[in-house]
Write a structure and sequence with these properties.
Blueprint: E1 5-12, E2 20-31, E3 34-41, E4 52-54, E5 68-70, E6 75-78, E7 84-88, H1 91-105
Antiparallel strand pairs: 1-2, 1-7, 2-3, 3-5, 3-6, 4-5
Length: about 110
């Protein structure tokens, strides 16, 4: 598991405690036994969810052309679990998403 990898796994709803959904996620950071994952959705930015970025270059990611990464909310997942890897985000897309994620979470 590396930053930029795309997996399918159960991702907790926001706010936590409301269940989860089996969906694509992007691994943002890996720290020893845990990783930070953000969800991929088919819904673009809305008034309720403005922090969604369209994934433009989906080659090799396993995502379809109508994919958005939501970078304001994340799950911490154990790297020791077994997940279904579907692809890798293109480096330019991942760099753009990393900047948005880091900027949002540094404030």
């Amino acid at each position: 598991m590396q930053p930029g990898d795309v997996f399918k796994l159960n991702f907790d709803f926001e706010p936590p405690g409301r269940g989860s959904s089996y969906r694509p996620v992007i691994i943002m950071q890996v720290y020893q036994e845990n990783a930070i994952a953000i969800k991929v959705t088919h819904s673009g930015p809305t008034e309720d969810f403005p922090y969604r970025e369209k994934i433009i270059d989906i080659n090799g990611s396993g995502l379809d052309s109508n994919s958005y990464a939501q970078y304001d909310f994340y799950n911490i997942i154990p790297v020791t679990n077994t997940y279904v890897k579907i692809g890798i985000l293109e480096p330019t897309e991942f760099a753009k998403l990393t900047a948005l994620f880091n900027n949002f979470h540094s404030t």
